[in-house]
């Protein structure tokens, strides 16, 4: 017990997360550092494929990503929070006011797709394939932030995690489309390789993060409500 407490007074904690968790992981780390100020933390943000490679190489203490059962290696995973995937267009897009848009209609739109290795890319392609369709890819982009800019620049529509819109980014210039089969309900998990003993710090962080779930959920609910009524909409 004394040793445990000592272990939390100083030490290192390395967290690696998929791109969409960067919209919340810093908040969790911030609160954790306030409670345990002696701990040095680091945060790595990259796509799903790279995260799994890092886990195989034992580069970090803990990981946040989705679908841990399909990681390709045996892991222990703890549910953290929802991570819904939505379709986003510029607010003045004609589909922005349409209810129940079909996948066929979506397939005709110019689509901005994430890079190979991205979990979002895989989810999107899978959703199209379920309807026997493919996205009409206008361009590929390796960043959620660049995708938001590209949507606003009129380059097309895309799929984004609701988390990427939680800071009111785009203030009324982006709209969530009401597409059949969306949002895709996904989730984040706290993950580490099976059989690898977590450090005291990592265990403490895990418990701390799990307790933040209601905050994450509340933030998502606020963002969802705001996106349903885009600024400037009269209907
Ligand atoms: P990605 O993962 O960065 O690999 O697309 C993000 C997510 O699945 O939410």
TrEMBL record:
The keyword rRNA processing does not apply. Keywords: DNA-binding, Transcription, Transcription regulation. The keyword DNA-binding applies. Belongs to the LysR transcriptional regulatory family. This is LysR family transcriptional regulator. It comes from Thioalkalicoccus limnaeus.
